[in-house]
Structure prediction request, 329 residues.
Amino acid sequence: MRAIRIERYGGVEVMEDRDLPVPVPGHDEALVRVACAGVNFMDVHTRQGKYARSRTYPVRLPVVLGMEGAGTIVDVGPSVAALRPGDRVAWCLSWGSYAEYAAVPASRLARIPDGIDFDLAAAAFFQGCTAHYLCHDVGQLGAGRSCLVHAGSGGIGQLLIQLAKHAGATVFSTASTAEKAAVAQRCGADHVMLYDAGRFPERIREITGGEGVDVVFDAVGRKTLRDSFRAARTRGLVVNFGSVSGPVDDLDPIELGEAGSLFLTRPRLADYLADAQMVQRRSEALFARLLDGSLRILMGAPHTFDDVADAHQALEERRQIGKSVLRIQ
Prediction:
């Protein structure tokens, strides 16, 4: 089978187009004929080696890239009872989707309902499940609550804005350019502003009468986290779920007290997709929103094996606004 594998960490030059054996599903796995794979920052980070020592995401070399995909089951292991060949499924957090076939733990798989094609399922699953748990489990957003979503034009940012608005929250969002700010506004954010060299907290406090927001969702990391503290209300919650600008490795907990007795958390999706029941519950909620039109995915241009490195490069250079997929079948 054709697959994109890395044997060392580095830039896009380490991505190798290889002919590999078709995987054999283990006892609790399903063999999926991959139709589409999502292209995500996690794939870029995998290639760069950021999970080389991770316990949450134990990705080790050599590895076929791609942690999100959609396709059709062709075989199942002897311990798999709830799924069968012919089922259309989507998954995330199981590496190997940049390939014609992938062996995926059955507990990671969710059935795709009629009306959702493979492109949309592969584009929506990882970022949609992430936005869902951030909104409902971590942020506990609803009527009367407010939040700030950094990088509102990003894949997760766009979905988080939409889910927060659907829950009834007031949504603030930041972006790096006017073009990206317009994307966040189209997603329904009530107040959109540029980062403005770290001056966005003053604007938020002006709008909120000096209080700040209940929850800040920060996937940027080093460049924004301390400014995020200033945007949160007293006893507010700051959710750092990414580090696109680099990790924060010099934080003294006393800063949280000085900023207003803040709560800071660094969650990971794996803990909110911990078993098959969680996967099914969250995926059903996600797919229902996609089907009724209350959640929309901005799609980028599709890619193939031949140009998937270009998709990685676009993500690294922050040129990608819509979600890209790798079309395989």
